[in-house]
Amino acid sequence: MIDFSKCEHKNKTYSGANGSKISVVYDNGLYMLKFPSRAPRNDDISYSNSCFSEYLGCKIFKEIGIPVQDVVLGTYTTNKGNEKIVVACKDFAVNGKVLQDFGSLKNQIVDSENNGYGTELEDIKETFELQTIVDPIELSKRFWDMFIVDALIGNWDRHNGNWGFLYDSMADKNELAPVFDCGSSLYPQLDEEKMKHILVDGKEIKARVYNIPTSAIRINSKRINYYNFILSGEEMGCNDALKRIVPNIDTDKIFDIIDNMPIIGDVHKDFYKQMLIQRYNLILVKSYKNLNKLYNIKKPKRL
Predict the structure, then answer these.
(1) Cβ atoms within 10 Å of 281's Cβ, excluding its own
(2) Distance CA 86, CA 248 (A)
(3) What pLDDT score does 46 carry?
(4) CB–CB of 69/92 below 8 Å?
(5) Chain-centre distance for alpha carbon 177
(6) Phi, psi angle pair for 2, to nearest 5°
């Protein structure tokens, strides 16, 4: 575990509602330290497990082969002497590049009457076609690739403000930013007692596969249910992403990442493994197999 309290501090600031953030230099690079936020939905836990969720979610994106921020788990001792678990996220908005979110891109569509941060799917898809600063095919591909991996890790908060692109002001060019902000995945507000209860209750497990969490993306103002939407096969962009992503998921390697995570105990690790394998098999693999009726596609890896 790295003690980031010994690192050089920088004056760069970071926005976002979930937890405090500071800038430090580590391993000759600039990193944002994210501190755990409070868990308002669970009175039995004073802080959420969002740092672990951020770390593992990003590691899963990387293992699957999607560009993502580099993350490191560590500790930080505050001025009051309190040691906290933190996740260090390497800052990719450097060398004159500025991170701009998808909502700001959406705001450029002057013919649209919808707010840039509205998450209606049809409005988002329209933005892919109408915007002119990023390749629309690559933009759509990134959105749907994230959607499939977010379905795997149970991310309920992938909105228009936490994905986007990097703007190079000198060249006046844009490129897709690596994936970032996975702290709302993998049930961050559960304590170990609740994890134990869920692990021995099949109904609780299935409820967390079929019903919760839902996506932040909406259809007719209703949040998308990952299971129903992906299984339906009605969205071709989603189907194409499913075909790209599922063959690249190696659950053994993901389990190795979990086994090597510091600090968390066996119950926590078992919970992560159980939820991931259930979501993998019941949402992604099941939906993937349905596509065999339409496509001649590679058989996915599975346990």
Answers:
(1) 15
(2) 29
(3) 45
(4) yes
(5) 13
(6) -85, 135
| Averages of pLDDT over each 10 residues, the chain, 303 residues | 93 81 95 81 60 97 98 93 94 93 81 70 93 94 98 96 93 95 93 94 95 96 97 95 96 97 95 97 95 66 47
Q: Do residues 24 and 89 touch, judged by C-beta distance below 8 A?
A: no
In Å, how far are 11, 193, 215, 242, 271 from 201, measured between CA atoms? 48, 13, 24, 29, 12
Residue whose structure tokens are 């701009």:
100
Predicted pLDDT at 79: 87
Structure tokens at 188: 């961050």
- Three-class DSSP category at 254: helix
3 state SS of 146: helix
User: Which residues touch 143 (CB under 8 Å, ≥6 apart)?
Assistant: 124, 128, 163, 237
What pLDDT was estimated at residue 292? 78
Tokens, residue 6: 């010994």
Cβ count near 211 (within 10 Å): 12
DSSP β-ladder status, 21-26 and 29-34: antiparallel
In the 8-state DSSP scheme, what is residue 169?
T
